[in-house]
Structures are given as structure tokens and as C-alpha cells.
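To: structure subgroup
Subject: Chain for Friday's discussion

All,

I'm putting the inputs and outputs inline so they're searchable in the archive.
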Amino acid sequence: MIKNDQDIINRLNELFAGDTQGIEKLPLGVKDKYAVFSDIHLGNGKKSDNFAHNEETMQTALGYYKDKKYSLILLGDIEEFWQFSFKKICKQYEPGVYSLLRSFPEGTVHRVAGNHDIEWAGLPDPISQTHDKEYGFPEAIRLGDFIFMVHGHQG
């Protein structure tokens, strides 16, 4: 095993053990419902935006989950910061996806950092119910005692 592999295992073990800075703990009871989205890669809506042709499907799915009172887990790489700027992504998806995500009840949309959207530090969160705070995300989510979710880019 190479050193990087051991570092990854160590970090995941720290998170699983309850590193309170890097993990968000959510309840998992018989009435709790979660929908998980990962690797959406929102871009600028133009030709090189791989998500653009899926926007209507995403809005339909979000509407369904909102109506059925699901909480959402956005498991990393929601935005595509490797190719697009924050400003262009927000301009493209503000009237649709972001607006719909903001319409979920407070405390029901949860994010985990991914390698393509980890650059959120210091930027305002377009999904947050309180647009005046800077957004930072946890590295992992734990549902109940046994379900542990990460984006998987720790390597």
C-alpha cells in the first residue's frame, strides 16, 4: 500500500469516527426520506456544459422530491468550477435549478464537497436560505449510525 492510500484510509476513518468539522450527521428514521444527487456539473448552459440538456429532467425530479417532502443530499460536484466561473453558472441556473433548490424547506438541502466544486470557500451560496452567509460544506454525511457518504475524491 502506498502512503497516499494510507492517508485516504486515515481521513475516511477520522470522518467515520465523527470528525465534527468534516461531517454532517442527519437522522435516519422510518419517516426520513432522502434523494441523493451527485456529479451534476452545472455549467454555463452552452455547448460545453454537459448538464444543459438535463435541466428540465432535473427540475422535474426536484419538483417531485419537494412535493413528496424528501430532503436532498447533494453529494459533490454540483457545480463545474474546473471549466466555468461562479458568475456564469449562477447566471445560467438561477431562474431554474437554484430557485427550485431554494424552495425546499430550510434544513432539507445538504451538500458535500466534491473535487469540481470544492472552490466554494468564500463564495455566497446560491442555494442557502440565508443568502448573507458564506458557504462551506462538510466532507461527508452520516445518515443515522451506519450510512456514511462521501464524494470519493479524497485520493
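Points worth raising on Friday:
The mean pLDDT is 86.
The longest strand covers residues 71-75.

D.
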